[in-house]
Known about the structure:
By secondary structure, the chain is α/β, with parallel strands linked by helices. Helix content is about 40%, strand content about 15%.
Amino acid sequence: MTGPTIVISPAPTANGDLHLGHVAGPFLAADVYTRYARSVGRKVLFGTGVQDTSTYVLTTATRLGTTPQALVERSAKEVEATLAALGIAVDAFTGWEERFTSFVGRVVGELRAKGALQLRPMPFPYSPRTGEYLVDGHVAGTCPVCLAGSSAGLCESCGHAVGAGDLLDPRSTRHPEDPLEIREVKVLVLPLEQYRDRLRAHFAEAAGLLRPHAAQVVEELLARPLPDFPVTYPISWGIQAPGDDLAGQVVNPNAEPVAWTMYCSMLAAERRGLEPTTEDALWRPEAAAQVVYFLGIDNIHPFGISGLAMLLALGDYQLPKLFLTNEFYELDHEKFSTSRGHLVWGRDLAAQAPRDLIRFHLAANSPELQRTSFNHAELAALTRTRLVEPWNRVAAKADAWVWRGALPVSDRSRKAAARIVERFRVAYELPRFSLNRAAETLTQQLARLDRVEITAGGDFCHEVDVLLRCAAPILIDLAATALSGSDMLPDSDVRKVVQRRTIEPVRLPRLQPLEV
Length: 516
């Protein structure tokens, strides 16, 4: 018996809305895959949320002159609204609810009870003036691995975990002029080196499933001894660490992914009526679930290294193998920056352009294998020439056959339709899922139908119909409008109609171009 597919997009930090860098990477990919998988009859649970325990919540609240809690509440509403505006339909959306925070405490407590966590001294930058230890977003410097500028916690450039005390030339992000000291504090750590051989064996079994950059990062991380991973931090913002000897410490936000993913899976199952008995039920081998992560390359360590090590330490759980990473998405070839105002908010763009055009454009230049860039003029030009104009011409040709009743579909057309389905299938299926190839396939097939000389109306309308059903995970509004009156809704299995003998054409909607 096959269990559900659990699709996870890691929760963004609750310090603002989603910009296009978030959407073009994990969120759109996860949504398109979820829609496709359901269209072929699979049970899928899609979850995300916001992470409000990150220190970046504090630094952003300080910069904006608001309170952290107010920022969290506002950000959660904004993120949910942006997902909805772009048609990204999640089953579970998590936040800082007590049910979740208590589960995190139980997981950390269980790991400690099993002897998997050790209380060991670790170095942290310390500000004598404020009396604070500085971690993650509170301290910046140079990554000791790749020498790029980095904050503590995770290096966005090389994907390695960066201990706060290991940063080169550390400085406070809030008070850069303050002198810092390095002091040792006993915190709970997970000795990752104990799990390196098993992690290497696991990824050896998963050979070929990772995208090239992710495979490089994993290989690099596991080729050398792994440092202790801090599970608690000596700061006050976050989920309080369990244990009387950990007073004044919180759970490291980068140590939350295992508990969060389990909780998110359970919440998604509840929302879809599956009702798992416990938070971890879907992660047990008997559940036969498949876990798929859609995530940025900078998240490979907390989900794919320390996260998997925690699962090994906890006991009898399935280890995910599918980590579909993406690179960074830029704006006019510069990194998105909230502080500099160099960004495009997803919801703002959705108010300016039809979301089908946005989804198509982001799919076409999704940063799957390398950094790509957004530009308003390119959005207008690319969608006009590759989608809007050819679709409208194809729709006009198909409309000429409306009201002629049922038209015959030839064997040749049925074979062509089957090939269309297969080209989309290889773009949508795991582990080679690719938004780029799905958008390219749509472009190619539209161009073919645009230039073909119609000799049989039934054949032409049949292939247009099949193409639109295949494109439905991307062009959600066009498909919903065009197919609503047919014998099959967009989320049904498109392969069932490929072999039909007749088709009754319907009038097709048009797309509106985006003006620059």
